[in-house]
Amino acid sequence: MHDLIREPVRTTLFLLVFLLGAGSAFANAADDDSWRQFDKDNNNELSLEEFTQLRVAQYTVIDRNSDGQWTRKEFVQRMPDMSPGRVDALRGKFKRWDKNEDGLWDTSEAAQAINGNFKWLDKNRDGSLATKEFPKQF
After folding, report:
1. Which of 78, 115, 72 is CA-nearest to residue 94?
2. H helix or E strand, kind and range, residue 95
3. Using N-to-C axis directions, what is the helix angle for 107-121 and 84-97, rounded to 10°?
């Protein structure tokens, strides 16, 4: 899993950021089909590998200084129209995902979070995420 995030992915991250744009990566799945570019087998679902690629692209967008780590400030300051409740929820996620509690979220911690997030979202445990399993804020 960690290898999915390391060098092969890092070399393509800037391209992904360009293709996605900062706003489209976090749009409502029902209203925005930008996630479909990660659906490599065109089955209208995301496998763990496809989901990982999507999340890596999303996290790359919020890594403002491109150092491969995220501070809480970077993680929370994503969209100017976020509600205070959403900001608080993101702060909580950051704290949970910062396993070593160093105030930074790195690629190793991101890999763990992605895997856990995928398992949590895959309600029917079939190994892929259908659009009905996507959260509202995706």
Report:
1. 72
2. helix 84-97
3. 110
Give just the sign of the alpha carbon dihedral 97, 101, 103, 109. Answer: negative
Q: Give pLDDT tens digits for 82-135.
A: 677 788 888 898 999 999 999 999 889 999 999 999 999 999 999 999 988 988
pLDDT value of residue 10: 43
Q: Can you tell me the distance from the alpha carbon of 73 to that of 94, in angstroms, rounded to the nearest whole number?
A: 10
User: What's the CA gap between 67 and 100, in Å, rounded?
Assistant: 18
For the record, the structure tokens of 115 come out as: 């895997």
Task: Strands of 1-138 (E only): list them.
Answer: 45-47, 69-71, 104-106, 128-130
